[in-house]
Structures are given as structure tokens and as C-alpha cells.
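dumping this here so i dont lose it
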């Protein structure tokens, strides 16, 4: 029995942008989960088309919710506003390339613990698309071969990773992978603390619970004294 699957048929040139982008992703065997970056598969002008397509779908959602957007002045442009927010702002980390980051050689051979943070985090839960708001701290132990980057670039990279629908555990791991590849330190530690509005707003409606998780790599994982120093410095920041 021949169990091979046929490649998807190429969409017409006038097919919706989402279909054309999805075709390229599937043809390349590239995953496109909620927290994946797909910027390499979007051609010039298609993001505008995608935003318009999302706007049209959201208008149908409002209609299905039995909201009279024609006579309700508060919701007449809601679909347009939400589509722009999704594509250009809160989920922009899916659709745009990584920010440019200038890397500098570690000329002075710095090898002491450095901490960046707290960096404000704005993300969204991929289960309910509710906001995740919190803070991230990044600890680095560079070596003579590490690439040093400017402090603002940690903020830009964090925002790029976090501006996607996702779960906190995966987001911290993705940020760690990105920084490990760019900086190549001896040790890397990341701690994230966040409020999840899927708990505040719905379900148990618990307004006090936060989630804290961490990723430890290299020296931070192997050296308990270094890890203890990193975490103690964070606790003193409140």
C-alpha cells in the first residue's frame, strides 16, 4: 500500500494571504504553532492582506455574538482595531523578523555575573488569548569568547519572543535558546514572574496568583553558589 501523502496543491494567486503563507510553510515542512515565528514565509505586502483578512473574520465573530456593529458606535471599528492589535502588536513576534542586534567581542574578557531586569513582559495565553503580564530577569556569566550585546537589545529580544500566543514555560525556554545562541555564555539563567488573566478574568477568577518559572543553563545549572547568588540578588529587588 502506498501511504505517501501528496503535497498540498498550490493556491491561486488571488487566494487569501493566509492560504498562500500556509502553503509555503507546509511545503517547507515548517511548523507554524501559535508561538512560532513565520516571518520568512511572508512576502512583501502580505501582512496588510493578512490583517484585512483577520478583520473580516473578526467581523463575523462579532456578528455571531449577536452584536449590532452597524448601530452600536462603540463596536463599529472593533474588528479593525483588534485585527491591527493582533497582527501588528500583541502577536507581532510571529510575523516580523528578529530585531537587529549588534554583537561586540568580549575584549576585556569579562567573566562576572551580570543581571538584566526586570524587563516588562506582555504576552498572551495561547489557550484563551488572554493577557500575560509580568517581569523577566536575565542572568549571564560571559566568557572570553562570548558576544556582548547592548542592554536595550535584551529588552527588544524579550519583547520579540513574548509577543506571541504561548504558555509561560515555553516562552522562557525560547528566550533562553535565543540568548544562548547569540551570546554563548558559560552560564545563563532566566526567571519570569507573571499574572495570567485567564485565571483573573475567567475560570477560578483568582486575582492573587502568579506563576514563576526559571531556566538554568551551563554554570547556573552546575554551580549552586552561582545560582544562589543570582536568585538572592533577584529577591532583594522585590
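and the seq i came up w/
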Amino acid at each position: 500500500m502506498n501511504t505517501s501523502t501528496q503535497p498540498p496543491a498550490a493556491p491561486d494567486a488571488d487566494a487569501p494571504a493566509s492560504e498562500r503563507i500556509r502553503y509555503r510553510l507546509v511545503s517547507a515542512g515548517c511548523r507554524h504553532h501559535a508561538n512560532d515565528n513565520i516571518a520568512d514565509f511572508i512576502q512583501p505586502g502580505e501582512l496588510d492582506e493578512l490583517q484585512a483578512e483577520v478583520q473580516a473574520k473578526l467581523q463575523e465573530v462579532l456578528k455571531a455574538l449577536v452584536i449590532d456593529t452597524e448601530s452600536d458606535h462603540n463596536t463599529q471599528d472593533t474588528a479593525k482595531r483588534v485585527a491591527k492589535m493582533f497582527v501588528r502588536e500583541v502577536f507581532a513576534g510571529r510575523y516580523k523578523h528578529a530585531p537587529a542586534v549588534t554583537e561586540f567581542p568580549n575584549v576585556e574578557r569579562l567573566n562576572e555575573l551580570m543581571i538584566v531586569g526586570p524587563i516588562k513582559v506582555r504576552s498572551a495565553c495561547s489557550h484563551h488569548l488572554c493577557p500575560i503580564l509580568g517581569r523577566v530577569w536575565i542572568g549571564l556569566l560571559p566568557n572570553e569568547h562570548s558576544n556582548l550585546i547592548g542592554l536595550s537589545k535584551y529588552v527588544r529580544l524579550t519583547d520579540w519572543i513574548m509577543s506571541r500566543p504561548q504558555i509561560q514555560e515555553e516562552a522562557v525556554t525560547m528566550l533562553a535558546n535565543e540568548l544562548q545562541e547569540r551570546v554563548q555564555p558559560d552560564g545563563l539563567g532566566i526567571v519570569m514572574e507573571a499574572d495570567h488573566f485567564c485565571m483573573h478574568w475567567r475560570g477560578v477568577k483568582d486575582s492573587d496568583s502568579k506563576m514563576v518559572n526559571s531556566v538554568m543553563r551551563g554554570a547556573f545549572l552546575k554551580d549552586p553558589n552561582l545560582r544562589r547568588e543570582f536568585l538572592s540578588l533577584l529577591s532583594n529587588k522585590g
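The mean pLDDT is 89.
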